[in-house]
Write a structure and sequence with these properties.
- The complex is a heterodimer.
- Chain A contains ten helices and 26 strands.
- By secondary structure, chain A is α/β, with parallel strands linked by helices.
- The longest helix of chain A has 15 residues.
- The radius of gyration of chain A is 23 Å and the shape is globular.
- The N and C termini of chain A lie far apart (about 50 Å).
- Chain B is of the alpha+beta class.
- Chain B has a single domain, classed as 2-Layer Sandwich (Alpha-Beta Plaits).
- In chain B, a hairpin with a 4-residue loop joins strand 6 and strand 7.
- Chain B starts with a strand and ends in a 7-residue tail after the last helix.
- The chains are: A alpha/beta, B alpha+beta.
Chain lengths: ~425, ~180
């Protein structure tokens, strides 16, 4: 009888357990989690805070007890793993439990990155990742005592926090270290349009500012000081500058890491029998052909399941990461597929704008580098799929259905041609 | 018994009757801007040889075997109906994030402005469970659309071709 361990129990851990169970009904599955909750989706925190979701909705697969029973798991709750002995495939928990396994899935996820600056630990300064963060934001905003907010980091979670302020009519500033927001996903022209939309709906934008320290006044109000001498005041400050993989319990001498645990398409690390999935791993990216950490819910789900199937003796392969994001905030949808920084000066750029749609895309020869679209979320999957097709089969045309869908939704013919869809197969 | 939708493009004139059936069955308020779950296309697409291909097409959710929208939904709203095989949903906890739309190559999930939630074709699951044809199939006067038992479909040549397409798109379950 196989005995497997799953370290961490978010999307990757849950689907890892599901992958093992659907492949091997008899396997012993031990789950180690540092919480007492069911698998939690960090993306849902801001939706709970703005009352778009009930509390239980943050746990899409149910409570820990329900999941435990459904998948026949042995769960060690509030038992973070303190050490992983890779050669022995053994774990030791912070509580002192030691156990040996046939295979282990590392699915410890990631934590919010908080810069180590004076005042980062003050009351009212927090990040937005956990169930506790969600409850705190909601409580503070509903207290009526918050008159202003500062969000440090224009990220996918940062804009959703800012949306919470805006929808309650509370003044909020979005601060960003880089002079361009979403530089990893959006062209400068797209980012300008997105930020202009936010500003029209009351958000203040402050770009190119590096937070140096935070101080608290006698009245409890917070002051954020930037490196260039600017002072911003707020009642709460939310740090949303990105995330970092949770790998502190690992010795990097024992396992290969580079921005995350490096894994092959079977989600196995460089140590046989040790797998990794989700926000803590760096899986193959079909766009660059290299291993990259791309922390997306859907990646975690797929990677976890692939790892679980393989751990139980089955055969599954992860199709690959792709840099893709669909932001939606204050009534605006904006899609990015690919990497804008990959665009080269000698390449072709496509741009289109009308009242409802904005498109900017870049390609070099046969390869699409990046597509940004504002205002057509319902076509985002078709565009993403066309992008994938351009990588996997550059000479193939769009399907009839894709071409018709895009045309019917107002995409101009020259964009469809730019995608490579001029002709039928 | 699981079911699949079939479509014979040679019989389709893009008359839109299937859309009418869908709108009626699902109480879709087109006038207020809601989108029908089924789309019809009457279009001309340029061919490699310079000619034009006249398209008459009716399309909705493909009810993929390994539906990517299920994995993509962060709130766990979408699932497979074990009886019919259709991709169904309960959007009580839908946050309108459109992750399902980003996952779907066919543009099936649509955003409903009135409540800020995503909606899609559920194969007229309740009708099929009660022995009826889906509303779009019922409305198709030319026999272009049908809904048949999966076993019968898989045995047909069209079924084999469709299975290959889904395999190419990575929309089939693990073997």
């Amino acid at each position: 009888m196989k005995k497997v361990a799953i370290l961490g129990f978010g999307a990757a851990g849950y689907h890892g357990a599901q992958g093992v169970r659907m492949t091997d009904a008899e396997a012993v599955i031990d789950v180690y989690t540092d919480t007492a909750f069911g698998p939690h989706n960090p993306m849902l925190t801001t939706y709970y805070a703005k009352n778009a979701l009930p509390y239980q909705g943050m746990f899409p697969y149910g409570s820990l007890e329900e999941v435990q029973e459904r998948l026949n798991l042995q769960v060690f709750r509030a038992s973070p793993v303190a050490e992983l002995k890779t050669a022995e495939k053994a774990i030791r928990t912070a509580g002192g439990r030691t156990a040996w396994y046939d295979s282990i899935l590392i699915a410890t996820g990631a934590s919010a990155f908080v810069p180590k600056i004076p005042g980062a630990g003050l009351p009212g300064v927090f990040s937005m990742r956990t169930e506790a963060d969600a409850r705190y934001l909601k409580e503070r905003l509903e207290s009526g005592a918050v008159r202003s907010g500062l969000v440090v980091g224009i990220s996918w979670s940062g804009i959703k926090v800012a949306e919470n302020f805006a929808q309650r009519g509370i003044p909020c500033t979005l601060m960003n270290r880089s002079a361009q927001a979403f530089s990893h996903a959006l062209f400068p022209e797209t980012a300008e349009r997105v930020l202009a939309h936010f500003q029209e709906r009351g958000l203040q934008i402050s770009l190119g500012k590096t937070l140096q320290r935070i101080e608290q006044g006698a009245d409890g109000g917070l002051s954020a000081f930037t490196r260039d001498g600017q002072q911003l005041t707020a009642d709460i400050i939310v740090m949303t500058s990105g995330i970092r993989p949770n790998l502190d319990f690992l010795s990097t001498e024992d396992i290969c890491t580079e921005g995350g645990l490096l894994v092959d398409p079977h989600m196995e690390t460089c140590v046989p029998g040790i797998y990794a999935a989700g926000d803590c791993c760096a899986a193959y990216d079909i766009f660059t052909g290299t291993q990259k950490n791309i922390a997306l819910w859907m990646n975690s789900v797929e990677q976890g399941r692939v790892a679980g199937v393989n751990m139980a003796g089955g055969s599954a392969r992860f199709r690959g990461n792709l840099p893709v994001s669909l932001g939606h905030c204050l009534g605006l949808d904006f899609l990015s597929v690919g990497d804008p920084s990959a665009a080269v000066p000698t390449g072709r750029v496509y741009e289109y704008a009308d009242k409802q749609l904005y498109i900017r895309a870049a390609r070099n020869g046969r390869k699409l580098h990046c597509i940004n679209v504002i205002g057509a979320a319902e076509c985002s999957g078709a565009i993403k799929n066309a992008f994938i097709k351009s990588i996997e089969a550059p000479d193939a045309a769009l399907s009839i259905q894709t071409a018709c869908l895009l045309r019917s939704q107002g995409f101009p013919d020259d964009f469809i041609k730019f995608l490579g869809g001029k002709h039928l197969d | 018994m699981k079911y699949v939708f079939t479509f014979d493009e040679d019989r389709c004139s893009a008359c839109g009757a299937c859309r009418m059936g869908c709108i009626d069955q699902n109480d879709i308020d087109i006038e207020s801007g809601e989108s029908c779950f089924r789309r019809t296309y009457e279009d001309e697409i340029e061919l490699k040889d310079g000619g034009l291909y006249c398209v008459y097409l009716s399309a909705a959710c493909m009810h993929c075997e390994n539906a990517p929208c299920i994995d993509a939904c962060p709130a766990g709203c979408i699932k497979k109906d074990q009886e019919t095989g259709f991709t169904v949903y309960d959007n009580t906890n839908c946050i309108g994030c459109k992750s399902c739309a980003l996952a779907c190559p066919f543009g099936a999930p649509v955003f409903r402005k009135s409540d800020g939630k995503m909606v899609k074709c559920d194969g007229c699951n309740i009708r099929v469970k009660n022995g009826l044809k889906p509303a779009c199939v019922r409305a198709c006067s030319f026999g272009a659309l049908d809904c048949v038992a999966e076993a019968d479909f898989n045995a047909s040549e069209g079924g084999k071709a469709c299975s290959q397409l889904l395999k190419n798109l990575g929309l089939q379950k693990y073997s």
